[in-house]
Design a protein that fits this description.
single chain, about 300 residues, mainly beta, five-stranded antiparallel β-sheet, 2 helices, about 30% strand, elongated
């Protein structure tokens, strides 16, 4: 049971070791009309897309984590350098050590009895002249930062798009509005701190950009979460985040599959001064398929 617990902690540690746009609305071409199925060439709506699947690996999981490097490794797996139950990790023999409490009466003068945990199911008594390597070391601030990141809930973004597939096809050349939820679990910021053995680390997680894949090879990068399209007021308004010039050709028999990725940046620091650093991670949305039609020109 003990070895299985340590590997689980180590595997978790390994996993943790983790926008500008301008555009203009296109005016209708003279003599152009919407296809018969449309009543307005601006067939946009404000219904968000479906949410993506779970990020994986717990609340802080997901692809692309770029956390701090680990210093303690056992059997090729990163493990915490300190464990509240097992004590301090000795990198020389791969065992955790803690002082036996209370010390037996027959412990020779100048020696200390330690309990070692080396991945088996029991504790091994070891009589030592002094603390083993790594014993009593302060916590690694980078490790505390990674643990804090793992405890955050960073949700996959939802796709907000206009035109939305539930309202019919959009049109070639008209801007596509893009947005996602602005909440702290989707966009940030989230601030959290943790103290261990006299060291307090604080992190602040927020999205620095969102990159949209338009399904035709084009990417749109936005520094903000955008804004939902409002049909009554936004027909001639450029989107704060969007595909400014729209699609250059209709989707035809297949639809354009649009998705987005949020890129989180997570700086961390030791309160009171000292070490600092930055972790990065990302979250991916589900795909939303949209149809694009051509404008029809009517000649008289």
């Amino acid at each position: 049971m003990l070895s299985r617990r340590l590997l689980t902690v180590g595997a978790l540690a390994t996993l943790l070791l983790a926008l500008g746009l301008t555009g203009s609305a296109s005016a209708r071409d003279p003599g152009a009309e919407c296809p018969p199925s449309h009543t307005d060439c601006h067939v946009w709506d404000d219904i968000p897309g479906n949410p993506g699947g779970p990020g994986g690996g717990g609340p802080g999981g997901g692809g692309g984590d770029d956390g701090p490097a680990r210093k303690c490794v056992r059997d090729g797996v990163a493990v915490p350098c300190y464990d509240d139950i097992l004590g301090w990790f000795n990198p020389q023999d791969g065992c955790y050590y803690k002082v036996a409490e209370p010390q037996p009466d027959d412990v020779p003068e100048g020696k200390t009895l330690y309990q070692a945990s080396c991945g088996g199911d029991g504790l091994i008594p070891r009589l030592l002249d002094g603390p083993p390597p790594g014993f009593g070391a302060p916590p690694d601030p980078a490790e505390l930062a990674a643990e804090l990141l793992a405890s955050l809930t960073l949700k996959n973004p939802r796709v907000g798009i206009a035109p939305h597939p539930s309202k019919g096809a959009g049109l070639v050349g008209l801007p596509v509005w893009l947005w996602t939820d602005p909440g702290p679990e989707t966009w940030g910021p989230q601030v959290k701190s943790k103290s261990d053995r006299g060291v307090t680390v604080e992190i602040e997680a927020s999205v620095e950009k969102m990159v949209w894949d338009m399904g035709n090879g084009d990417k749109v990068t936005c520094p903000t979460h955008g804004r939902a399209y409002v049909p009554a007021t936004d027909k001639d308004t450029k989107p704060p985040c969007g595909y400014a010039n729209g699609y250059s050709k209709p989707s035809g028999d297949s639809k354009y599959k649009v998705s987005g990725t949020t890129y989180w940046v997570v700086p961390w620091r030791v309160i009171g001064g000292g070490a600092s650093g930055t972790m990065r991670t990302q979250r991916n949305s589900a795909e939303v398929a949209i149809e694009i039609d051509e404008l029809q020109v009517v000649t008289r």
